[in-house]
Amino acid sequence: MIQPDEDVALMLRVKRGDREAFRTLVERYQRPVINIITRSIGDAWEAEDLAQRVFVQVYRTAHRYKPTAKFSTWLFTIVHNTVLNEHRRRARRRTESLEQLQQPGEDSAGWQPADERSPDPARAAAERELRRKIRAAVEALPDAQRTAVILCRYEGLALEEIARVLRCSVPAVKSLLHRARVTLKEQLRGQY
């Protein structure tokens, strides 16, 4: 388990120009950052590009870093802002994506081989479809609700950390999560 103090120490080294410390942080957080972005925008290819943009931003703003919270909280704030900017860009640009060009019934996550361990192919297909519907429902949530759900459910952040990322109070995070759960239950009613 990574100690938060270790991440802060690495980032302070990055602040002093240590590229090896930066490389260590990228290796440590690359997968969680890509996962958060993928869950937020629903496009794995674009998520990798945006993750790279996040780490470039981390490096460029290293001189302003202050260890007032866990490094991951600071990093996930940059991720959140990057995702918001991407949603704004997409809203202005409304171009067709590869997902829109897919044939009806295709899984937006792409082709995945069948799980040979699964005794029931029909059940496996139903589970994949349910995951696709859940992913689509989460992606359709308003930005703050979606980010709160992703950070809480998939990244396991504490409410206080989510509040820092979203720059709001803990009660506001609780409210966002509650509204998101109500919306998701409503959208997914009868699906499981």
SSE ordering: HHHHHHHHH
User: What gyration radius follows from the Cα positions, in whole Å?
Assistant: 18 Å
CATH topology name of the largest domain, in short, is Rna Polymerase Sigma Factor, Chain: A
User: Helix amount, in percent?
Assistant: over 70%
Summarize the biggest pleated sheet.
Answer: none
- Quickly give the CATH architecture of the largest domain: Orthogonal Bundle
Question: What is the total tally of β strands?
Answer: 0
Q: Estimate the mean pLDDT confidence.
A: 82
| Range of strand content | under 5%
The CATH H-level homologous superfamily of the largest domain: RNA polymerase sigma factor, region 2, helix turn helix motif
Q: Detail the poorly predicted runs.
A: 95-118
Shape: globular
Number of helix segments? 9
First-last Cα distance? 34 Å
Integer count of domains: 2
* CATH first level of the largest domain: Mainly Alpha
Structural class by secondary-structure content: mainly alpha
Secondary-structure topology with pairs:
Elements: H1 4-15, H2 19-41, H3 44-60, H4 71-93, H5 98-101, H6 121-140, H7 143-154, H8 159-166, H9 170-188
Protein architecture, described:
Mean pLDDT is 82; it is low at 95-118. The chain has helices at 4-15, 19-41, 44-60, 71-93, 98-101, 121-140, 143-154, 159-166, 170-188. The chain has 192 residues and is mainly alpha-helical. The protein has two domains: 1-97, RNA polymerase sigma factor, region 2, helix turn helix motif (Rna Polymerase Sigma Factor, Chain: A, Orthogonal Bundle), CATH 1.10.1740.10; 120-192, Arc Repressor Mutant, subunit A, CATH 1.10.10.
